[in-house]
């Protein structure tokens, strides 16, 4: 379910760097929106700083990066580091794009929750977020409680 206590999952979809191809990001954003999530799409050519600033301003539960340029290690590392610096390491980081299989374990070590590569179904990120975001909410409630 995309809501707990009428709270909607909020997701930021971002295209870091100079990659100008955003069709996949838009398809994922639409699938998440159609599933009842609130989606903020930042558009093309975002810096890691811009992405993290928007995520904090919009109070998102998750950030999805779409990277087709081959610079995935750089951008995921940079976004994760900025989230930690800003005290927002609990924001779920995930992504998709052209990512070689050999990089997947290294990205997982960086704290990237899930990667959706070519061939993934649009329902895959929907189902995954519906599973992990309520766990984030529960952890936040315990920390406050």
TrEMBL record:
Coiled coil: none annotated. Its cofactor is adenosylcob(III)alamin. GO terms for molecular function: cobalamin binding; metal ion binding; methylmalonyl-CoA mutase activity. This is Methylmalonyl-CoA mutase C-terminal domain/subunit. It is an enzyme of class 5 (isomerase). Keywords: Cobalamin, Cobalt, Isomerase, Metal-binding. Its EC number is 5.4.99.2. Residues 8-139 form the B12-binding domain. NCBIfam families: acid_CoA_mut_C (TIGR00640). It comes from the Bacteria. InterPro entries: Acid_CoA_mut_C, Cobalamin-bd, Cobalamin-bd_sf. PANTHER family: COENZYME B12-DEPENDENT MUTASE, METHYLMALONYL-COA MUTASE, MITOCHONDRIAL-RELATED.
């Amino acid at each position: 379910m995309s809501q707990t206590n009428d709270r909607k999952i909020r997701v930021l979809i971002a295209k870091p760097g100079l990659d100008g191809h955003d069709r996949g990001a838009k398809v994922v954003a639409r699938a998440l929106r159609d599933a009842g999530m609130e989606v903020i799409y930042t558009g093309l050519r975002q810096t890691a700083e811009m992405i993290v600033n928007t995520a904090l301003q919009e109070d998102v539960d998750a950030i999805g990066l779409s990277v087709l340029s081959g610079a995935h290690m750089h951008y995921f590392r940079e976004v994760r580091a900025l989230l930690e610096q800003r005290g927002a390491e609990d924001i779920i980081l995930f992504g998709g794009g052209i990512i070689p299989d050999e990089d997947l374990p290294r990205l997982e070590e960086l704290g990237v929750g899930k990667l959706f590569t070519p061939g993934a179904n649009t329902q895959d990120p929907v189902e995954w977020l519906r599973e992990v975001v309520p766990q984030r909410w529960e952890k936040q409630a315990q920390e406050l409680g």
